[in-house]
Design goal:
It contains 10 helices and 8 strands. With about 270 residues, it is α/β, with parallel strands linked by helices. Helix 1 packs across helix 2. It binds magnesium ion. The site of magnesium ion has 6 residues, from loops. It comes from Paraburkholderia terricola.
Length: about 270
């Protein structure tokens, strides 16, 4: 696995436990507003141009590889002779990124208020992740950005929810899995990683809404809390509340994120 460049120039950030692993898209900001549609369109166009296929086939490959491997890139790299780094760069470059970003009010304050270490773990490339974090003004709050380029091993591209990748990344960061709290919008990632003994928070506030028959957005079906989710939250605000309440109990148990302290449910 490659070493994130951020590790060489780690900012001065308070350490300790817990160790928050934050997903990026639809967790720290609302990628489903404009960025995801643009990435999907760019990926489809890239596949059309690179593989000389029709749009329907390109969309089929894009969605199929995401479902099968966790990221379109992994399927493209495995099955087609194209340049993965060029693909990542082309489909994640947005000259007007700032206008595409939507996020919670006070996101920097909310993340900064959380005790412990903070790391970003994203299947996106590093340049895009850092550009988004910079627009959100929260890049300095994270000691590392573990992006998809850093998840590679000698032979293969890897991505969430790969177990070996996460174990290696946490070993390299000197993090014990029992101290990790993963905050994610993607349920399959939470499900796979819960098996490693880490704690899981499912954030749902940025998930796309399904249009109701009368035009009013409604919540996606199946957003009840699954067994592999320790807490469901809609907003990062709830993380702080949950951590505070647990801190009061902290002398007896180190559970900054537990079912009993869950203030929110969808
Ligand atoms: Mg996400």
């Amino acid at each position: 696995m490659r070493t994130p460049t951020s590790r060489r120039r780690r900012p001065h950030i308070a350490g300790g436990r817990p160790v928050w692993l934050f997903d990026l898209d639809n967790t720290l900001h609302r990628a489903s507003h404009a960025i995801f549609p643009a990435i999907n369109q760019a990926m489809t166009q890239y596949i059309i141009d690179a593989l000389q296929v029709e749009m329907d086939e390109a969309n089929r490959l894009r969605t199929g590889y995401t479902q099968r491997y966790g990221a379109t890139l992994l399927g493209l790299a495995r099955h087609h002779p194209l340049d993965p780094n060029d693909f990542l760069k082309v489909v994640h470059t947005f000259p007007d990124l700032g206008s595409m970003i939507r996020h919670e009010r006070g996101v920097a304050r909310l993340v900064a208020a959380l005790p412990g270490r903070k790391i970003v773990l994203t299947n996106a490339p590093e340049s895009y992740a850092r550009a988004v974090l910079a627009k959100l003004r929260i890049e300095r709050l994270f000691e590392q950005v573990i992006a998809i380029e850093h998840m590679r091993d000698r032979r293969n591209w890897r991505a969430k929810p790969d177990h070996a990748m996460l174990r290696k990344a946490m070993r390299d960061a000197h993090v014990s899995l029992k101290d990790v709290i993963l905050v994610e919008d993607t349920r399959s990632h939470l499900k796979h990683y819960r098996r490693l003994g880490i704690r899981t928070v499912w954030i749902t506030g940025h998930l796309p809404r399904k249009p109701h028959a009368d035009g009013v957005p409604t919540r996606l079906p199946g957003t009840g809390r699954p067994h592999y989710v320790d807490r469901t939250i809609r907003s990062l605000k709830s993380l702080r509340l949950g951590t505070r309440s647990v801190r009061l109990k902290g002398q007896q148990g180190r559970q900054p994120c537990s079912r009993s302290t869950s203030p929110t449910k969808p």
